[in-house]
Amino acid sequence: MRMRTPLSVLAATGLGLTALGLGTAPASAATAPDAAAPVAAYAGSAEEAAANRAFFEAVLKSAAEKRAANPTGTAAVTVVYDASRAPSFATQIARSTQIWNSSVSNVRLQSGTSGADFAYYEGNDSRGSYASTDGHGNGYIFLDYQQNQTYDSTRVTAHETGHVLGLPDNYSGPCSELMSGGGPGPSCTNAYPNATERSRVNQLWANGFAAALDKAEKALEKSGR
User: Fold this and answer.
1) What cystine pairs are annotated (predicted)?
2) Residue 170 gets which letter from DSSP?
3) Which domain holds residue 159?
4) Tens of pLDDT along 110-142?
């Protein structure tokens, strides 16, 4: 949900970090890596869609490589995230995890700092909150303080996590669609994926993971492990 929050909206809400239960933004709040110029609100772009897809594929590859190295009979794929760099959003991240784990069956999110597939960061960025990958298997979700003052913070977090699970943005969608992000406006507080989104994630982590796992297993065989 990469978007800028209009100043008029911020003024109208009159909400501070304390009112949202986020605490006070630390003076040394992180700035997102590789910060770029702001993009237009809700517009989306082919570049952004490609970046979100790359993030999903990086996480998928990471999970598949771990499964190939340590086979398990568990049907659901476990994706580990590190939330230690976003302490102000611990409650929202935990709630987002609960929402996704209760909504889909083929992938499960799990907190952990060792061998994490992706991480959450917090700070200030004119682009708002977003998911990103460096293209080499390392991905993160950045949660912006200002945006989370204006929009429902759990919805923002669950939306960005949706990118990790393979879902693209659809800013023109209704509030009932999680990946419509900030499109419906600040009054939208729905943090749950709808039936179509749930089905898509289950499909991606069944078919997509099978292909990624096969590739990882062949790579292991080739390396002689």
Assistant:
1) 175-188
2) -
3) 77-205
4) 999 888 989 999 999 998 999 887 655 568 999
